[in-house]
Amino acid sequence: MKRQIKTGFVVFCFALVAGTCVAVEVDGIAAKVNASVILKSDVILEMRRAGLPPDRYSEVLNDMIERKLVLKAAAESKMTMQEWVIENRIREIISNAFGGDRNKLMEALAQQKISYPEWRQRMVDDMVVSAMRWQTIDKNVVASPSAMREEYANNPERYTAGGTTTISVILLKPEDAGKRDEVAELLKSEPFGEVAKRYSADSRAADGGVWKNIVPADVFRQEVCREIADMPVGTLSHWIDLDGWSFLLRKDDESALRTRSFAEAYDDIERNVREELAMMMYDRWIERLKAESYVKTY
What we know:
Layout: H1 9-14, E1 29-33, E2 36-39, H2 40-50, H3 57-76, H4 83-98, H5 102-111, H6 116-136, H7 145-154, E3 160-161, E4 165-172, H8 180-186, H9 192-199, E5 210-214, H10 216-219, H11 222-230, E6 240-242, E7 245-254, E8 258-259, H12 266-291, E9 295-297
Antiparallel strand pairs: 1-2, 1-9, 3-8, 4-5, 4-7, 6-7
Helix pairs in contact: 2-3, 3-6, 7-12
């Protein structure tokens, strides 16, 4: 889902060693949610754990408010996590994040001055929040055929394919610029890939200099992209000089950008519709929880 509780365990766990400093005043109350208080220092600690910059303060505070609202709703619905589910999750985390070594988890917690009971409760709360979201939102989201057709018609740019190029490159270092003529002469009798392996300083030289199915603008500078755009498939470029480096290109293949059919893009369309609907449902749910609670920010 695009919209999630962003201060959940995944961020919390993998940011245990984060030490980003956040220049925000730490004293005082940031928000009140019913009988609970969120201190500014709580928000800052959350940001440090996630390695977030100061301009994310309001966003993190809002996420913490929403989290408390969801946990309150879970308590009122008497949602609980069975002990074996919790222990399985702990083992999974230790296996995936700490190589199966529980001592590494404890060391990471100690470095951040977080007690194991505090960490465990945080993890349980995350599981409850996820379960509440699934129960209330995710399991009820249905992408109807009409909504999918509307999404496909209104956002064709999301469902394109192609628009890629396969290029082979020989790149000479500045000190090897004098070898241009030698390389050009060898290409008259030897395969491009073999010459690239021997002379090129490009990162793909070992593969014959091939950059397969790329969007040139994602890889090369504008000067190189312009040359690629003007080249017919199967042709060589002239030498391109960029800051003393010498580029020689061969355009091997090119696929035109096209819009995928509805059938081809079906899975992506369904996912996007579900995400949009879930986001709307989540926002309405949170607004309802806020209306039923006392929430004040400072």
